Amino acid sequence: PSVLSIKNEYLQATFHPDTGFLRTIEVLDRKLVLPVSQAFFWYNASTGDKQSDQASGAYIFRPSREKPFPVSHWAQTHLVKTALVQEVHQKFSAWCSQVVRLYPGQRHLELEWTVGPIPVGDKWGKEIISRFDTPLKTLGSFYTDSNGREVLKRRRDYRPSWELNQTEPVAGNYYPVNSRIYITDGKTQLTVLTDRSQGGSSLRDGSLELMVHRRLLKDDARGVGEPLLESKSGVWVRGRHLVLLDTACDAAAGHRLLAEKELLAPQVVLAPGGGPSYHFG
Amino acid sequence: YGDSAHLNEAMAVLQHHDAVSGTSKQHVADDYARQLAAGWGPCEVLLSNALAKLSGSKESFSFCHFLNISVCPLSQTSAHFQVTIYNPLGRKVDWMVRLPVSEGLFLVKDPSNKTVLSKVVELPSSDNPELLFPASVPALGFSIYSVTQVPVWRPQARPPKPWPQKFG
Predict the structure, then answer these.
(1) What is the spatial distance between Cα A142 and Cα A131, in angstroms, rounded to a whole number?
(2) Residues of chain A contacting B19 with CB distance shorter than 8 Å
(3) Separation in Å, CA of B159 to nearest CA in chain A
(4) Pairwise CA distance, residues B86 & B93, whole Å
């Protein structure tokens, strides 16, 4: 079967014919191609274990094991192609879907994810991530911003200001992401912009993940006095990740301008039209 | 009269770390949301007054809070409406407008009354088709686009009677 793909003047994204997952991103005018597999996973929230009775909760992220579970091994896909937008609708499960969008003239891929209500009928709290896996040799480093300003270099299992004895291989490598996270091998850079603050990390070379939603069943004994559970059947959340692929030297200009446009996005107000004049006479 | 004092107050209360990081009990988080929503109302009046003054015509402006789930009563029910797009950035931006609409075709005109390419896209994950059109908005300014539904001629069983020709 022909490869499922979407394309504009600058970018082409292809999708795996069997799984329906994103497979490659290509920057056409820079002849830059990067295999990028993106999918959703979930960490099983810890309720305390032999090492520590600390549970995952509103204050604490603590998965019960290092390896997250895939939400699904494949996605049902639906392609929409028009002159004004090309998009692939992906359905990973009843509570996890995404639209991968490309508008004319834009240099980023828009991933609009919709997650929830997170099922907890199995009595397991879940912490949902969107993970991007690439072959980039990032040597244990990644970059996250601080309130959209200074970008800090992060190194796995390391702290610049003290000798870290890493006891939490996942949570101990998670950092706040207010607007962007990126990985680079010095030549190619993959940047993901967020539309809200999220937790993020790079737990393996070439990999980058962002936490999009959580639903937990036990209080973390830090003062809230109730689990992060939401009322009734739980909420579903929709957000967007903007994905940029660029050469390392050109990437900053791209993500800085786009992040500004994302933060100060245009506002739309509707009206029937034809109202009376505001000014006298 | 609109005012932003309520929203200012709500934003001030929400500087608490519980509001910023979501470490409050559920009912407190719900109350934070309630305070924000209560602050929005008077602000929308303020914005409507500003837009009326700046655009020169009084309108009953409609702020669609649920565009992210393709819900907007005005664009889904009106055959004609205007779309004001405000750009808070200090530079011009091009932006794709997406609005849920009812079926059919639409004619979109830009501020200089030129027709703009538009598309109604059926989406597999939503009951509502969406009208898309590219907008260009000046720095720290706004553009007003007009949208008019075009009656779609459906082929009848019998071709319509020819209009009586008026010979001039």
Answers:
(1) 14
(2) none
(3) 31
(4) 10
pLDDT tens digit string along A200-251? 999 999 999 999 999 999 999 999 999 999 888 899 999 999 999 999 999 9
Under 8 Å between Cβ of B55 and A277:
no
ipTM of the complex: 0.92
Count of CB atoms situated within 10 Å of the CB of A143: 20
Residue owning tokens 């005005």: B74
Q: Does A278 touch chain B (CB under 8 A)?
A: yes
Question: Measured between alpha carbons, how far is B142 from B94 in angstroms, rounded to an integer?
Answer: 12
Q: How far apart are the first and last CA of chain A?
A: 67
- Alpha helix segments (H runs only) across chain A: 248-263
Q: Give chain A positions within 8 Å (CB) of B85.
A: 266-269
Q: What is the pairing mode between strands A267-271 and A207-215?
A: unpaired
- Cβ pair A43, A213 in contact under 8 A: no
- Residue A83 has its nearest CB partner, among B74, B84, B119, at B119
Q: Which one of A84, A256, A263 makes the best mutation probe of the B interface by having the most chain B beta carbons within 10 Å?
A: A84
Q: Assess B80–A contact: CB distance below 8 Å, yes or no.
A: yes
Structure tokens at A136: 């980039």
Q: Is B25 on the interface with A (CB under 8 A)?
A: yes
- CA distance linking residue B92 with residue B98, whole number of Å: 19
Asked if residues A210 and A174 have their Cβ atoms less than 8 Å apart, the reply is no
